[in-house]
Fold these 3 entries.
Entry 1:
Amino acid sequence: MSIRLIPTRYSTRSSFTSSLKTFTQSQVIIYRQFHDTPNTQNTATQQSFQNDPNHMIPTNVPKGVNLTTPTPASPLSVSAGLKHPGKKVAPNEFLKAFNNKELISFLMMGLCTLNSATLKLCIKLFPYVPMAVIKALVYRIYCGGETLDEVKQAGLRLHERGINNMMISLTIEACDGNDNVDPEYIIDETVKSINGILEPHTKKMIETCDKNINDIPSGYVALKPTGFVKNAANVLKNYNNGEEAAFAELVAKASRACEAVYEANQRLAKQYPDRTAPFVVAVIDAEKYELQPGVYELQRQLYKKFNKLNEPCYVVGTLQMYLSDSASLLAKEERLAQENNYRIGLKLVRGAYIHSEKDRATIIHKTKQDTDDNYNAGITYCIDSILNQKDKESTIGHLVVASHNADSLKLASTKVYTQENATNINKSNVVLGQLLGMADHITYDLIKNYQIGNVIKYVPWGPPLETKQYLLRRLEENGDTVRNDNGWPLVKATFNTLMGRLFNKTSA
Ligand SMILES: Cc1cc2nc3c(=O)[nH]c(=O)nc-3n(C[C@H](O)[C@H](O)[C@H](O)COP(=O)(O)OP(=O)(O)OC[C@H]3O[C@@H](n4cnc5c(N)ncnc54)[C@H](O)[C@@H]3O)c2cc1C
């Protein structure tokens, strides 16, 4: 079996796809070992890799080293360049940060994901479950709240867990049509959330955290293109085919949010001139495949308007790496930016719509492994691009590694947090993001055990009814690859934590 992968470095930086090579399965394993090899070995291996005129995969990885399998010590445990305290990490330590109500919600999630039959049943029943029940049982672990004040509080609670910023998203789903969508309300609330949550929260984090100004992650506002115009699905599908006026309206709405972001950055930059990364960033979320052509066009127009050459990237677009055409799309975005003199910021995700895509067989990678390889190749390429620049001259200027996959997060951390990059100011332009309520043990491990500061959580907020589709996708996703950490182990862990609290209280 052969798998497409990109090497770490290229002879030219002009194209992502032209650098793709075909490697065998065993070469892929060596490539992984290259990334998982301890620092000294990495440097030697990397040098031999760079010296190789054909950019072949290095072969001098020590025999018998199998660092691809995490040891039980921690979800991310590898020695590769990451500073780990060496102590055994109690697997359920992360649960201590949650209150009893939240633990009960995790217990419910564990019960829903006990096995595929219970999960399928829960997914089927979910649309009929009354909102009051959803709100009482799961809303609180996946969503930041209903009001600006509640989201601010959610930010402070994240800070207590060592997570110093967030990606807030007013989640009103409309890709399947939604009569409740009022674009004016959505944009007004979004602007209020930038000025009322993101800017003050970022300022507070800068002033509260005992860290270098560049070690505080940026704050993000996620913009859902389907919320900015009535009948958005039709507008995005036909943005250049009869819906030009409505599409222009959509772009204007999104631009209002980006302007608020731009102005917040100007204000904060006056107070903290030493910061190199943006303070706050607007992120365009990716939607179902059939809507994406319009979303890509929206991203391009916003990049052009807000991401000027030699300035931080204030707008970040999303690429879904489960799409089989995503590698060439990344190359295309980079080329368009170079031709039109703007920079691009990227959030790379695997993609959340695999369960609902009609043409899954043709548009999505054939296997999970192909998606994983493509994702890891994508983040490798972007990180190299960002780290190797001197002063804001790279076309790709900012990256959010939006994933819960321990291997991908490990790969990104290993590349960014090296001794060599200790003083590289560009590293604050690479941020790792997870969804609120997902992969909390991995977020915990990154922060507490590897001391990686650039970690944020995606915090959806808004009326519970409107977040129902979002919650359904989380339920489906919980049954995918993260199942190892759900089901019975989660039930046991939350139950033990709750019992531990009860027991301590009783004995006190
Ligand atoms: C901060 C943040 C922002 C996000 N924003 C968006 C967004 O704008 N748009 C969006 O679509 N998603 C978004 N997501 C969701 C994201 O796409 C999912 O969380 C992600 O796909 C789950 O994958 P993972 O990287 O955590 O890794 P894993 O859990 O290892 O991978 C699971 C993913 O692999 C892929 N996959 C699974 N099986 C197969 C298969 N048989 N063949 C091919 N591929 C397969 C699917 O994408 C699946 O979701 C966001 C996530 C985060 C953390």
Entry 2:
Amino acid sequence: MGIKELKGALMFVCNGEFWRMGVIWTISLIRSYFNLFLQTHFARKSKLYDRSPPSVSSASASIRKPLCIITGATSGLGAAVSYALAKEGYYIVLAGRSLDSLSKIVSEIQEQIDDAFVKAFQVDLSSYKSILSFKLSLQQWLLDSDLHCSIQLLINNAGILATSYRITAEQCDKMMSTNYIGPFCLTKLLLPLLEQSHIPSRVVNVTSFTHRSVSSMEVTGETISGQCFSKLSSYPFAHVYEYSKLCLLLFTYELHRQVGLVEKSHSVSVIAADPGVVKTNIMREIPSCLSCLAYYVLKLLGLLQSPEVGIDSILDAVHAPPETSGVYFFGGNGRTLRSSRLSYNSKLTKDLWDASSQIFLERQLASQDTT
Ligand SMILES: NC(=O)c1ccc[n+]([C@@H]2O[C@H](COP(=O)([O-])OP(=O)(O)OC[C@H]3O[C@@H](n4cnc5c(N)ncnc54)[C@H](OP(=O)(O)O)[C@@H]3O)[C@@H](O)[C@H]2O)c1
């Protein structure tokens, strides 16, 4: 390790956010497993969800394979889920920000799975413009390929743990945009395609146990766009990550409630999945000696999983029976858990929905102005 790297690591250790990650997040994780243990062994109404593969009805003969969009499919959990679902016969649409990484993963999947159906699209989730252009290209591709204009599964998986404040073209915080605003806008834009599905369709949001570390929360346009963090002398990155994951969870429950109110012949379900701690590239901005140490300790505690195991809760969410919606999968084996008390707060949910919808509307209007 060079002097520069050592100095960087020492400075990082002096940051309170590092200790928040190390201590508070570990407590949140242990609490999640403890609750899961109590629920599995002592709760009378502990429910396990069997996995049921998607069925394609005769009315939808034009859909040969259920179409699944996975964001952040070029690394870690997203890549592992893409392999698993391609093996199961889904038509996989990989959405990622780097064309090189996308073409690499497409060839890897096609090399390993003979009859894999894979298509890649470039999208930067921190940019509304990019999300909109992804939606338009996707629709055009469905039309050109003579595929039914619908999708069966959207997995909002992409996410980052950014350690510094970075501003997007839309003047927002990069981490809030990638982890929350981007998935919100993408889901809103793709909802008509999910609703057009001939079989029940589903949104799976990949959230995190770190949402439990948020003890109080204020929801305004400034907080969810992350603009308020630009005024702070140091970027509270651990707080922002937890906050973004709690927002995604609140959004999951509210979208579930709202789609349930609309009567459609084939319904859309909305589910949250929490993989626990998984060894991926998520800690890429943390000094490598510290992330290696963290993984080492987590492994000793028996809490670290490989991506192939970590995707269990995501696959549970994907394969839960069609009527399953508004639940939080954690721990694999079809197990769900109650998320934090804040995540069920109806005032927060409403404030978040209103503020997010306002941002979405502003972006829609801005994009119309530029076209
Ligand atoms: N690993 C864990 O312990 C853990 C625990 C709980 C929840 N999660 C959640 O699981 C999800 C997947 O994370 P991971 O652990 O697999 O991390 P990862 O290996 O770093 O993968 C993240 C993926 O998101 C993509 N991505 C990042 N920013 C993007 C953007 N602006 N637009 C489009 N794609 C973007 C990355 O693309 P590039 O490769 O191009 O950067 C990458 O494919 C995240 O939402 C994370 O919060 C992870």
Entry 3:
Amino acid sequence: MLRVLQKSAGLILTFAVCALPQTRFHGKAQWLDNAKAVVTHTIDDTTKFVPASVDAMDKHGIKATIYVNTASKSMDELWPRLRKAVADGHEIGSHSRTHPCKWPDTEEFCGAAYTDAEISGSRDDILKNTPQPHVWSWCYPCGNCARYPFIQKRIAAAGYIVARNYQDEAKNGHLIPNLNTFAANAFDAAYTQVVQKKGGIAPTGNDELPKLNAKFDEVYAAGAIYNFMSHPQWLDYGPDAFYEAHMRHIGNRADVWYVPLGPLYAYRALRESTQINTMGKRFELSTSLDRKIYNGSITLEFTTSQTPVFNGTALPERKRGSLTQWAGSFFRREGTRVWITVPPSGVLEFR
Ligand SMILES: [Zn+2]
């Protein structure tokens, strides 16, 4: 009899525990909206081919950093297309004003070439001609000068948070990088692979579709960052040509986050810096970073059956679909597992 009573009590207790709405915090997701992998793209130079490259990206949901030379004569024609690109979630980065470039890139050359006009002037040109709130990304013309700490310091002092390199193209050094994560030094940042024909002083290009796609597949399987770069003047255009065919393979995937390079590096800083203070079922998020520069969201992982409420407003639920922004507030549910994407300052509760 006693045994039966104990059993019943146990059953009642179990039932009571299950009926309680439980909310458990598991931590920050690695990528926004708990994406499996990240795709970022960069294109270099001011040429008449830039719009065709961006049009091709837009068909496949790819988001790029578009590096331009802001003193180029063609910029007047290009700015309207770039303003649309910013509205579509791309980033405009600086490739200097006049593309100073020389081999060998001695300390003397770099010291003289990297003037305030080239570094800050090009940044201000972008701010003046686009609605972009900040210029996050720099790209070294010809890959020159990227290795010098004194040049990196000048880039950082102008507010850039990442600077992409392009090494030793005369000896095919640009084909080597194979970087599938964040660069150890953000001011000498490499990429996963080049996607372009032979061009410039390089002996070889990288335009074989099976090879290009295989590299993406490897990075995707590892849940890492696939970061590809191109010069629009060294591409073939059309749905069956290698550039767009490669983007068709890697684009519009529901479990990939598509984001330009600058906002991706800003996300890393935001994710690392965000403090979360827990008081029962109330989570207070805060960051000391400047929200004009670090203007994205981060994703928190919970187990809960309740509805997340952020700063007093119930968050909208979003089904998994390709994620092509870096800001916003929403949640996504898979069973009792919930991923909540919100800016890094405010109060998160559950109701
Ligand atoms: Zn260039």
